[in-house]
Amino acid sequence: MRIKLDENLPVSLASILAKLGHGVHTVPEEKLSGKSDAQVWDAAQQDTRFLITQDLDFSDIRRFTPGTHCGILLVRLRSPDRQSLIARVADVFRHEEISRWTGCFAVATERKVRVVQKPS
Protein backbone atom coordinates (compact mmCIF):
# COMPACT_ATOMS: atom_id res chain seq x y z
CA MET A 1 0.00 0.00 0.00
CA ARG A 2 1.15 3.55 -0.73
CA ILE A 3 0.96 5.54 2.51
CA LYS A 4 1.33 9.14 3.62
CA LEU A 5 2.12 9.44 7.33
CA ASP A 6 0.89 12.70 8.84
CA GLU A 7 3.21 14.82 10.97
CA ASN A 8 1.23 14.02 14.15
CA LEU A 9 2.53 10.43 14.10
CA PRO A 10 6.06 9.26 14.93
CA VAL A 11 8.31 9.31 11.86
CA SER A 12 9.78 5.97 12.98
CA LEU A 13 6.49 4.36 11.90
CA ALA A 14 7.61 4.87 8.31
CA SER A 15 10.41 2.31 8.59
CA ILE A 16 8.17 -0.15 10.44
CA LEU A 17 5.50 0.08 7.74
CA ALA A 18 8.15 -0.13 5.02
CA LYS A 19 9.44 -3.38 6.55
CA LEU A 20 5.87 -4.68 6.26
CA GLY A 21 6.04 -4.00 2.52
CA HIS A 22 4.44 -0.57 2.23
CA GLY A 23 5.70 2.48 0.39
CA VAL A 24 5.66 5.27 2.96
CA HIS A 25 6.13 9.00 2.57
CA THR A 26 6.01 11.28 5.59
CA VAL A 27 4.72 14.83 5.79
CA PRO A 28 8.08 16.07 7.22
CA GLU A 29 10.18 14.47 4.46
CA GLU A 30 7.93 16.08 1.85
CA LYS A 31 8.41 19.51 3.46
CA LEU A 32 4.70 19.70 4.33
CA SER A 33 5.16 20.17 8.10
CA GLY A 34 3.03 23.05 9.30
CA LYS A 35 1.11 23.21 6.01
CA SER A 36 -2.67 23.25 5.98
CA ASP A 37 -4.73 20.08 6.13
CA ALA A 38 -5.90 20.87 2.59
CA GLN A 39 -2.30 20.90 1.34
CA VAL A 40 -1.49 17.61 3.09
CA TRP A 41 -4.69 16.08 1.73
CA ASP A 42 -4.04 17.29 -1.81
CA ALA A 43 -0.50 15.89 -1.70
CA ALA A 44 -1.77 12.51 -0.49
CA GLN A 45 -4.41 12.33 -3.19
CA GLN A 46 -2.13 13.53 -6.00
CA ASP A 47 0.33 10.81 -5.08
CA THR A 48 -2.48 8.23 -4.56
CA ARG A 49 -1.51 7.59 -0.94
CA PHE A 50 -3.53 6.27 1.99
CA LEU A 51 -3.38 8.87 4.77
CA ILE A 52 -2.65 7.85 8.37
CA THR A 53 -3.38 10.64 10.86
CA GLN A 54 -4.63 11.59 14.30
CA ASP A 55 -6.12 14.83 13.00
CA LEU A 56 -9.87 14.99 13.66
CA ASP A 57 -10.24 17.40 10.75
CA PHE A 58 -10.14 14.27 8.58
CA SER A 59 -12.92 12.52 10.53
CA ASP A 60 -15.96 13.89 8.67
CA ILE A 61 -17.03 11.12 6.32
CA ARG A 62 -19.49 13.46 4.66
CA ARG A 63 -16.51 15.49 3.48
CA PHE A 64 -14.19 12.51 3.05
CA THR A 65 -16.75 10.11 1.63
CA PRO A 66 -15.40 6.57 1.26
CA GLY A 67 -14.73 5.80 -2.38
CA THR A 68 -13.82 9.38 -3.29
CA HIS A 69 -10.23 9.23 -2.05
CA CYS A 70 -7.31 6.84 -1.53
CA GLY A 71 -8.23 6.03 2.08
CA ILE A 72 -7.81 7.34 5.60
CA LEU A 73 -6.84 5.70 8.88
CA LEU A 74 -7.70 7.92 11.83
CA VAL A 75 -5.85 6.80 14.96
CA ARG A 76 -7.75 7.67 18.17
CA LEU A 77 -6.03 6.54 21.35
CA ARG A 78 -6.87 7.74 24.86
CA SER A 79 -3.18 8.16 25.66
CA PRO A 80 -1.48 8.78 22.32
CA ASP A 81 2.13 8.75 23.46
CA ARG A 82 4.81 7.88 20.93
CA GLN A 83 5.19 4.23 21.92
CA SER A 84 1.43 3.60 22.03
CA LEU A 85 0.97 5.10 18.59
CA ILE A 86 3.79 3.05 17.11
CA ALA A 87 2.55 -0.16 18.71
CA ARG A 88 -1.09 0.33 17.70
CA VAL A 89 -0.49 1.32 14.08
CA ALA A 90 2.05 -1.49 13.61
CA ASP A 91 -0.41 -3.95 15.14
CA VAL A 92 -3.19 -2.79 12.83
CA PHE A 93 -0.98 -3.20 9.77
CA ARG A 94 0.21 -6.63 10.89
CA HIS A 95 -3.21 -8.08 11.73
CA GLU A 96 -5.90 -6.34 9.69
CA GLU A 97 -6.67 -6.84 6.01
CA ILE A 98 -5.53 -3.36 5.10
CA SER A 99 -5.23 -4.30 1.43
CA ARG A 100 -9.03 -3.95 1.35
CA TRP A 101 -8.95 -0.43 2.80
CA THR A 102 -8.18 1.48 -0.40
CA GLY A 103 -10.81 4.20 -0.61
CA CYS A 104 -12.12 3.46 2.89
CA PHE A 105 -12.33 5.46 6.08
CA ALA A 106 -11.01 3.55 9.09
CA VAL A 107 -10.71 4.45 12.76
CA ALA A 108 -8.37 2.56 15.08
CA THR A 109 -8.79 2.77 18.84
CA GLU A 110 -7.02 0.76 21.52
CA ARG A 111 -9.55 -2.05 21.26
CA LYS A 112 -10.96 -2.12 17.77
CA VAL A 113 -10.85 -0.97 14.20
CA ARG A 114 -13.95 0.32 12.43
CA VAL A 115 -13.87 0.49 8.65
CA VAL A 116 -16.41 2.32 6.51
CA GLN A 117 -16.25 0.77 3.06
CA LYS A 118 -16.68 2.63 -0.16
CA PRO A 119 -20.16 2.14 -1.65
CA SER A 120 -20.44 -0.83 -4.01
Brief digest:
By secondary structure, the chain is α/β, with parallel strands linked by helices. It contains three helices and six strands, in the order βαβαββαββ. It has one domain: Rossmann fold, CATH 3.40.50.
Structural commentary:
The protein has 120 residues and is α/β, with parallel strands linked by helices. The protein has a single domain (2-116), classed as Rossmann fold. It has three helices and six strands. Strands 2-1-3-4-5-6 form a six-stranded mixed β-sheet, with helices on both faces. Helix 1 (13-19) links the parallel strand 1 and strand 2. The longest helix is centred in the C-terminal third of the chain and has 14 residues, at 82-95. The model has no long low-confidence stretch (mean pLDDT 96).
What is the strand and helix layout of this fold?
Blueprint: E1 2-5, H1 13-19, E2 23-26, H2 37-46, E3 50-53, E4 72-75, H3 82-95, E5 105-108, E6 113-116
Parallel strand pairs: 1-2, 1-3, 3-4, 4-5
Antiparallel strand pairs: 5-6
